[in-house]
Design a protein that fits this description.
- The chain has 583 residues and is an alpha/beta fold.
- Helices cover 64% and strands 10% of the residues.
- The chain is built from 21 helices and 12 strands.
- The protein has helices at residues 2-6, 13-47, 50-98, 102-107, 110-132, 134-152, 154-201, 203-208, 212-238, 240-265, 270-312, 373-378, 403-409, 424-428, 437-446, 450-453, 473-485, 503-516, 552-558, 560-570, 576-582, and strands at 332-339, 350-357, 362-367, 388-393, 396-397, 410-413, 422-423, 463-464, 491-495, 521-525, 537-542, 545-550.
- The strands form 3 sheets. Strands 6-9-10-3-11-12 form a 6-stranded mixed sheet.
Length: 583
């Protein structure tokens, strides 16, 4: 995990190295000043040497300015390194997410990924900053102050050592107790983000069903759980400050009492006592900073693991070593295919699928909800890989193709239609970034999207809100179909993509497909029998198996499931006269 994270330092290595160097310089300057103060008291003031006082005073100013310069340089380099580190972490996660297969995406919820890209990375940025600055500065300051204290007076320095050991033991037990709470906090953050994301994306449904109170209560519960975890963690950590302060005051009292006796006996000078008191504050403040570093590291350790999980996640679907770069035609073949979303799951989603589809053929796919229609077509463009058997496109196993070339040749309009913020043309050009406006218009005519686009005030320059909230479900579907057509695919898959379109428009779209892209293999998943009736063949799915695969006419005669769907939707009985009239 640590190796994975440190790889993201990249171009900020120099800033990361310089930050602790500047911090060491600042600490050395701070440690020199108490010695100079003691010399001013013991030599300058008691000796009445004004020139010595001025000379040492000037030296103190120079040292202080040097320390200030080192501190500023350290702060600048630390900020640059930590911000750059956070930027690279986000980029590494985002880039890897883009390479995820659907099975990889299924492992992480969207809300969890959002938390990791935002809250977790912010915590890592703060922790990295403290590690570069405080984790070097505080121990170095404490060690040098201890050395200087022993140099001035070993007896008094022993008091510091006992106090440091006592606080270190207390800090260890405190951090061990707080760690478990901080780990749970981020899990609660995932639930909180999930509540917000779900509510915002479905706000229209919430209002339509008057469920605002329910959503408010759900959010409050999630927020309260985060609050509870933080309170428990902070209660444990909160004892740190009073414990530190109490120890500091106790040590100061002991040193003052011991120092007074030693000054009277002549074994310690006033200047040395002043220096020792300054070092006392340095040592105990450094220990307090060390405790803060430990707290931050404890909080960020859980975040670090979650970030590393995303970066280290290996995509299940990758390019072969010598990929096939051309998809010659749109023929499809399934050979003894079985598929499960999880390897350890019991019953497979698809079982014993064997079929052949000719290039340019139009195939309808119907079946009850949950019959694995979408799972079947997702295997063609390698959104998932088969568990057993093989899927061939143009006679080549899809696992041998270059992923980009395969997915350019297989255009899929998924069940959930998604539009992005931008103009209609911007959205259409997701299918082909180099498409001309005339090509976009032609694709929209095939998808019958031109009918409503031309009525919009800004036409193809109309701005689409995020998620396509300012267009209807049917309009969104037609834009997504047009976007898919712009890829000029060898295979076009419509996964229930005209469900929100009226039957007349649906018929126009299918007629345009027959006339304009006759050589493109078309797979149409539909719930309406009218959407598949004019297909060359229809595939009937049942519980992940093929129940029938034939022409609509033959299925009506020989397949019970197809006949039942046909009769329930058309109200026509199974006799030849009825079928002929319907056809």
């Amino acid at each position: 995990m640590l190796k994975t994270l440190l790889k993201q330092v990249k171009e900020y290595k120099l800033a990361s190295i310089l930050t602790p160097v500047w911090m060491i310089g600042e600490v050395l300057c701070e440690m020199i000043i108490p010695v100079l103060m003691g010399r001013i008291v013991d030599v300058g003031i008691y000796g009445g040497d004004i020139h010595y006082i001025v000379r040492i005073g000037i030296a103190m100013i120079i040292v202080a300015l040097c320390g200030f310069g080192f501190g500023v340089a350290g702060g600048f380099c630390g900020a640059k390194a930590s911000a750059g580190f956070a930027k690279n972490l986000r980029k590494a996660m985002h880039d890897n997410i883009q390479n995820f297969s659907f099975s990889n995406i299924d492992k992480f919820s969207p809300s969890s990924l959002v938390t990791r890209l935002t809250t977790d990375v912010t915590n890592m940025q703060m922790a990295y900053m403290m590690i570069l600055r405080m984790a070097v500065r505080a121990p170095m300051s404490m060690i040098i102050a201890m050395i200087m204290s022993y140099y001035l007076n070993a007896r008094i320095a022993n008091v510091y050592l006992i106090a440091v050991l006592f606080l270190a033991v207390c800090l260890f037990f405190m951090m061990r107790s707080a760690t478990k709470y901080f780990r749970q906090v981020f899990e609660k953050y995932d639930l909180l983000n999930a509540s917000v994301q779900e509510n915002v994306s479905a706000i229209r449904v919430v209002k339509a069903y008057v469920r605002e109170d329910h959503e408010i209560n759900k959010f409050q519960k999630a927020a309260y759980n985060v609050y509870l975890m933080f309170v428990r963690a902070e209660l444990t950590v909160a004892t740190n400050a009073p414990l530190m302060q109490g120890t500091v005051y106790a040590v100061i009292l002991i040193i003052s009492w011991m120092g007074a006796h030693m000054i009277v006996s002549g074994s310690l000078t006033t200047g040395e006592l002043m220096s020792l008191l300054t070092y006392c504050m340095n040592i105990l403040m450094s220990l307090m900073m060390v405790s803060m570093v430990f707290i931050m590291i404890t909080m960020s350790s859980a975040a670090a693991k979650r970030i590393a999980e995303v970066i280290e996640e290996k995509p299940d679907i990758t390019n072969p070593e010598n990929p096939v770069m051309e998809v010659k035609d749109g023929s499809i073949e399934f050979r003894d295919v079985s598929f499960s979303y999880r390897k350890d799951s019991g019953e497979p989603v698809l079982q014993d699928i064997s079929l052949k589809i000719r290039s340019g053929e139009s195939v309808g796919i119907i079946g009850a909800t949950g019959s694995a229609k979408s799972s079947l077509v997702n295997l063609i463009s390698r959104l998932y890989d088969v568990t057993e058997g093989e899927v061939l496109v143009a006679g080549v196993d899809v696992r041998q193709y270059d992923l980009v070339r395969l997915r350019d040749a297989v255009s899929v309009v998924l069940q959930k239609n998604v539009l992005f913020s931008g103009t209609i043309l911007d959205n259409l050009r997701w299918g082909n970034p180099d498409a001309t406006e005339e090509e976009c218009r032609h694709a929209c005519r095939m998808a019958c999207a031109d009918e409503f686009i031309d009525r919009m005030p800004d036409g193809y320059s109309t701005y689409i809100e995020q998620g396509g909230t300012n267009v209807s479900g049917g309009q969104k579907q037609r834009l997504c179909i047009a976007r898919a057509l712009l890829k000029k695919p060898k295979i076009l898959i419509l996964d229930d993509s005209t469900s929100a379109v009226d039957t007349a428009t649906d018929a126009k779209i299918r007629r345009a497909f027959r006339e304009d892209i006759p050589d493109t293999t078309r797979l149409i998943i539909a719930q309406r029998i009218s959407s598949v009736q004019d297909c060359d063949r229809v595939l009937v799915m049942e519980n992940g198996r093929i129940n029938g695969f034939d022409t609509p006419e033959n299925l009506l005669k020989n397949n019970d499931i197809y006949r039942e769907i046909y009769e329930s939707q058309t109200g026509v009985g199974n006799d030849n006269a009825d079928f002929d009239s319907a056809s």
